Amino acid sequence: MAGTSLRNRPKVSRRAVLGASAIAGAGLLAAPAVAQGRAGTEWKMVTSWPRNLPGPGTSAQRIADSVEELSGGSFRIRLYGAGELVPALGVFDAVSAGTAQMAHTASFFWQGKIPASVVFTAVPFGLLPHEHISWIEQGGGQALWDRLYEPFGLKPVMAGNTGVQMGGWYKREIDSLEDLKGLKIRMPGLGGEVMRRLGATPVSLPPGELFQALQTGVLDATEFLGPWSDRAMGFQKAAKSYYTPGFHEPNGTGEALFNTTALEGLPEDLRAIVLEACRAENGRALAESDWENAGSLKLLQEEDGVTVRPYPDDVLAALRETAAKVLVEFAEKDPLNREILDSYEAARTRLAPWSSVAMRRFLAARDGTA
């Protein structure tokens, strides 16, 4: 309702929340119109992705479809792919200005405008997807995210996840730190700054321009997401070395941006529906990405002639050491940066030992390497 604070999840009736959550969690039950008899509501959603790009583009369309189905057709969201209404990296300003009511994107794109936004996508050597969701929902991350975007009239929420990322596509092999010198690489977020300090040249480009840039030599290397999305983008046609791990993005949270006035102006049941559709997409997208990445990795190696290569140990050690310095300096630049990073690091300190005990040892035992 108008005038309601969105710093925390909006307070809506028990009936609205239970109804929307139950339907979303059940995978779109065939439900009667939630808003039967109400005049239709139509929104615009702008995205940073090519339309229906496997991974984030799929998530954006699925959220729009879910909202329409859960509302019984009374709430429709018209989706615009990157460049169809506004440029891929113009969606933040478009939603802030009210050109569109909603966007689907990733927070690290706004590093130049609000540096701390990168933390809400990924931090080098940081939280894994399940750990990141835990921080946002249980560790105070959402409240900090809200504070960061509030001056722009925006409400951010998680809206999908592409999982653990790969290290990227390289046209030449990386055998030592010397091979990073002068390397033109697309790597956004704090990972790009780590690469810059080790002698590489980060280049900022929207997703839709990456393949051509890699193919024509504008880029020597690029990261994007994981095998499923990367193969759809065609990177295997321009480079054959696929590096791991994705030290720069151990998590792939998709970001939904809402114009605060538009969100507050929705009836409470429709507001609950759109927020719960985004929340439901986190689990669905992560499951889908893990499944499809596994299949696409096999195709890349067996059909496309791609070689998966680990970063050399000395390169990985330098990346880790440099990342630690970047994070210290990042925190010193602004009090809110420090507050956000302190919260993030507290979550990592709490969650990492459990992840190690529960997952690392199990995986070693399962693989017979314990």
UniProtKB/TrEMBL annotation:
Recorded hits in Gene3D superfamilies, A to Z, give: Bacterial extracellular solute-binding protein, family 7 (3.40.190.170), Periplasmic binding protein-like II (3.40.190.10)
Record InterPro entries? DctP_fam, SBP_TakP-like, TAT_signal, TRAP_DctP_sf
Where Na(+) binds, per the record, is at F224
Matching CDD domains, A to Z?
PBP2_TRAP_ketoacid_lactate_like
Q: Name one Pfam family in it.
A: DctP
Q: Which GO terms describe its biological process?
A: transmembrane transport
- Which residues does substrate bind? Q165, R186, E223, E249
Annotated PROSITE patterns: TAT
GO terms for cellular component = tripartite ATP-independent periplasmic transporter complex
What domain of life is recorded for the organism? Bacteria
Which GO molecular function entries does the Swiss-Prot or TrEMBL record give? metal ion binding
Keywords assigned by UniProt, alphabetized: Metal-binding, Signal
Signal sequence, start to end: 1-35
Which PANTHER family does the protein's record reference? EXTRACYTOPLASMIC SOLUTE RECEPTOR PROTEIN, PTHR33376
This chain's protein is named TRAP transporter substrate-binding protein
* Organism name: Roseibium aggregatum
